[in-house]
Description:
- By secondary structure, the chain is mainly α.
- The chain has a single domain, classed as Amino acid/polyamine transporter I.
- The chain has 16 helices and two strands.
- A two-stranded antiparallel sheet has the order 1-2.
- The longest helix is centred in the first third of the chain and has 33 residues, at 73-105.
- The mean pLDDT is 84.
Amino acid sequence: xxxxxxxxxxxxxxxxxxxxxPRLLLLRAGDGALTATLLSIVAGVLFTYITVxxxxxxxxxxxxxxxxxxxxxxxxxxxxxxxxxxWFLAGTITLVMTVFLLITxxxxxxxxxxxxxxxxVTVFFGVLLKSKSVLYTLEIVFVLSIPVGTIMFFKLxxxxxxxxxxxxxxxxxxxxxxxxxxxxxxxxxxxGCANLIVFNKYLKEKQYISKWSLVMIxxxxxxxxxxxxxxxIGLSGFDQIDQFLFPWTSAADAVRMxxxxxxxxxxxxxxxxxxxxxxxxxxxxxxxxxxxxSVFRWKFLQIKQKNYxxxxxxxxxxxxxxxxxxxxxxxxxxxxxxxxxxxxxxxxAVLFLSMLAIKKGAAS
Length: 364
């Protein structure tokens, strides 16, 4: 597989700790979260295999071209708009989560509008980058995240504050029935490969998915999803973990680096959090903007040789993001995010049905 495809998959897994997913899992720590995460690993790897295998057959083509070429407009437009909404909401959830975390842990005295605007200015220009430039930005962030993430996880695993008795207590609930919300939210970790619906156009070389590729994805997925669930429990305790709005940040804040030039692990976590959050928002909104641009390209925004529809679309994205961030509360964020993750099976169904329609159209 292309290295960029690995980046999409692994960054999405890593970015999951910057979303509401860990808290949604921990709220159901005694009610089926563990079995749900184990099932989501199987479902996620299967989703990755099916999605990548499909796009391998159409090298250098994105979903927009495939739907236009092999389906009718009454299928293409609703499907494209549905995907646009799903990708836009994914980026918006990460945006709101990032703003709330920065206000809580780093800049409590700063206005929410100032923080959100400073993020959106960067995101605005990032989304408007050429898709190849977005790929290279993703590569830079991924390379930077490797040493930082390694240091953070090593310190968390070797910390004296990590109570393995609390972890064992959580593992004792493996005999409970899986919770639906825990399953859908943890499955989100494996959705990164779905970015191929736009970026497959820029992967020109013939791709293939080997057994070793699936093994690597499975191992990293197990590592991230289990640790997203168990590390906060080990550091904060099983009984009171549901009291933390930002369980991962609170857990990282409990660990110190005695002989490090950075005393608190939370600062390493915040660097990883902010960088992965930024690139996650840019990727999600870039995909949404490309999809929406394929449906709407207004002629009245054509000035001389340049069409300004892309700028209007991204400006609308940023305006909605600013409004949502200023109106929503932290508890509402988790509540609404739960609804979003619960719709993911519908998204998977629409994606797979679109694949079948395209393959049927290509065969006829």
